[in-house]
Amino acid sequence: MIAHTDKLTVVFREGLRRRRVTAVDDVTLEVHEGDFFALLGPNGAGKSTTLYCWLGLLRPTSGKARVLGQSARRGSRIFGDIAYLPEEPHYHDYLTVEEAVVYYSGLYGTPTPRGRITEVLERLGLAAARERRVAACSKGMKQKVGIAQCLLHQPKLVFLDEPMRGLDPVTVKEFRDVLVELNRSGVTIIMNSHMLSEVELVANRAAVLANGRLVAMDRLDRLVRVEDEVYSIEVDHLDAVPEFFTTESSANGRLSGTIPASRLYEFMDLARMRGASVASCRLKQATLEEAFLALVDSANRRTGDV
After folding, report:
1. CATH number of the domain that 180 lies in?
2. 3-class secondary structure for 124-191?
3. Most buried residue, 38, 75, 118, 224, by most Cβ within 10 Å?
4. Distance CA 41, CA 292 (A)
5. Residue 290 lies in a domain
6. What CATH number should be reported for the domain holding residue 269?
7. Domain match, 214 and 232 both
8. Contact between residue 209 and residue 27 where contact means Cβ atoms under 8 Å apart
9. What does the alpha-carbon distance between residue 11 and residue 19 come to, in Å, rounded to a whole number?
């Protein structure tokens, strides 16, 4: 495992009365080398706290958080193989894009060849803006500056904390493509995100946290369940639907909906007799959002937080 936690628990003290707040409660996670691993959960679930423990920014109250075989400590050599992009990166605004990338990547202590800098800036679409002051950059460009300095020293493990929040759809697509390419090159990625539709496109494994506890951890295709008893149907030019067809949407003569598996052949016969065309038919699969909400709701009911 390239990263894992073992019964990780983090307790904070809040307010004048120093009330105990358990941010992470007995969480055990496993991230394998080559994973694109997503940490999912509502606000306050413990995602960022877990990330900070892996990075050595927080010390666990109990349990362990280890990366690359050891616990991260200030000045540890393992940071030469780790990159981190926070949710809201802050830069020295007087630097240009290129100066910021070079300066922050230089903190790893390894000189970066000029050709590598140009290569990364071009890959991220920053080459034309290399002389622009960071203060004049959009949020999307600042995120790209962050990922650029992550890429320069070719890390083994990258931590991302809500990297796509607040980005426009075009920038999200560009960012996603870079991350997928990075992961396919062998880099392990651990990402916190609320953008479940994006997670579904990039991650291979995920863990769901709620109220500081681990609710589920598995391959994404297992978390996103298939409903064996229901088919999703798209049909064109069906003038009237049978009572067992549950319509979900209708546009330009195409109906989308679901039917019980036991009525599939009956529906196909009916569509053929009425001259309708079945555009698609597949077992209904829950989206990651649906699976996530069901898991969190179940966890809340167990703890009484409903």
Report:
1. 3.40.50.300
2. CCCHHHCCCEHHHCCHHHHHHHHHHHHHHCCCCEEEEECCCCCCCHHHHHHHHHHHHHHHHCCCEEEE
3. 38
4. 8
5. no
6. 3.30.70
7. no
8. yes
9. 10
The reply to whether 200 and 268 lie within a common domain is no
Which of 134, 131, 130, 132 is CA-nearest to residue 93?
134
Shared domain for 25 and 49, answered yes or no, is: yes
Show the beta-strand stretches assigned E in the chain: 3-14, 19-31, 36-40, 62-67, 82-85, 157-161, 188-192, 205-210, 213-219, 226-236, 246-251, 254-260, 277-285
The reply to whether 299 falls in a domain is no
pLDDT of residue 228: 62
Please indicate, yes or no, if residue 124 is contained in any of the structural domains.
Answer: yes
User: Residue 288 corresponds to which tokens in the numbers above?
Assistant: 């990651």
Tokens of 81: 């193989």
Quickly state the pLDDT bin for 50 (edges 50, 70, 90).
very high
Give the Cα separation of 234 and 165 in Å (integer). Answer: 33
Number of domains within the chain: 2
Considering the domain architecture, whether residues 96 and 166 belong to the same structural domain is answered as yes
Global model pTM greater than 0.85 = no
Q: Taking Cα atoms as reference points, which of 67, 87, 66 lies closest to residue 193?
A: 87
Give the residue numbers spanning the domain of 33. Answer: 3-223
Report the alpha-carbon distance of residue 245 to residue 52 in Å, rounded. Answer: 49
In this predicted model, which residue has the larger pLDDT, 297 or 62?
62
